[in-house]
Amino acid sequence: PDVGAAGHRGHLPRDGGKPMKLNYKRTILVGFAFFLICAFWQAYDNTVPLILTNKFGMSQTWSGVIMALDNVLALFLLPLFALLLKWAYHKRRMNFMQHFVHAIHINSFFLLLVAVPAAILIYYAEAQENNDAILVSFELFFALVFLYMLLSSHTVYREGWFKTLVKSLLVFGSFTFVALCIAFVLIIRLIYTYWE
Fold first, then answer.
1. Which of 193, 159, 173, 190 is nearest to 67 (CA)?
2. pLDDT at position 51, please?
3. 96-113 and 60-88 are packed helices; what angle lies between their axes, rounded to 10 degrees?
4. Do the Cβ atoms of 148 and 109 come closer than 8 Å?
5. Which three-class secondary structure state does DSSP give residue 111?
6. Which of 157, 156, 150 is closest to 171 using CA atoms?
7. Which bin fits 128, alpha (ψ -120 to 50), beta or left (φ > 0)?
8. Which of 137, 164, 160, 159 is nearest to 148 (CA)?
9. Phi-psi category of 4—alpha, beta or left, where left has phi over 0 and alpha has psi -120 to 50?
10. Tens digits of per-residue pLDDT, 57-91?
11. 3-class secondary structure, 78
12. Which of 30, 59, 81, 102 has a CA 20 to 30 Å removed from the CA of 165?
């Protein structure tokens, strides 16, 4: 009798063969990746409010508002990024959650890498020097994020390099434009509220 794709006990493969074994190496690697993301996120949540209050002279209230907006934006922007990936790779037989996991993967790299331009910005803000290093670090940051997105998309969606490059440019450009527009509106609103 047909017992379904997972077997009657939920752990048998389709062909009714031996039960699947846990891949310990892959499980440890995935667990370690999640551990690094959680450790970075904890450091981010503890460090950024200190930077906002000590280096930029913001009050604790405004620092908290910015940190809350950060989490709210992540809540809405990650699904938007996944939707853009789904639109770009609509011929792939992948559901939205697979694109969403890929979006989280790229966002994790973004969060790990954002520490470099942030450190350069803090250094030059503290030294009060007008240097092109800040601009160069942000340009390099966005170039590395795009390059990682290109490599990741090529690996996940298994398309040729040219198609992946064009689609990555469209997704990255569209998402960056929308995110910058939202950030601009929120910053203007924050400045307007702060000066009232």
1. 190
2. 73
3. 130
4. yes
5. helix
6. 150
7. left
8. 164
9. left
10. 777 887 777 777 777 777 788 888 889 889 988 88
11. helix
12. 30
**What is the C-alpha to C-alpha distance for residues 196 and 192, in angstroms, rounded to an integer?**
6
Q: Measure the CA–CA gap between 162 and 172, rounded to whole angstroms.
A: 15
- For residue 9, how far is the Cα from the chain centroid? 37
Q: What is the pLDDT of residues 134-152, one digit of tens each?
A: 677 777 878 888 888 899 8
Q: Are 141 and 116 in contact (CB under 8 A)?
A: yes
Q: How many residues does the chain have?
A: 196
Q: Which residues contact 173 (CB under 8 A, 6 or more apart)?
A: none
Helix axes 96-113, 24-54, angle to 10 degrees: 50
Burial class (CB in 10 A: 0-12, 13-18, 19+), 19: exposed
- The whole-angstrom separation of Cα 118 and Cα 73 is 19
Higher model confidence: residue 7 or residue 36?
A: 36
Q: Are 66 and 187 in contact (CB under 8 A)?
A: no
Backbone angle region of 146, left / alpha / beta, with phi > 0 → left and psi within -120 to 50 → alpha: alpha
Residue appearing with tokens 């064009």: 166
Nearest to 191 by CA among 75, 64, 66, 47: 66
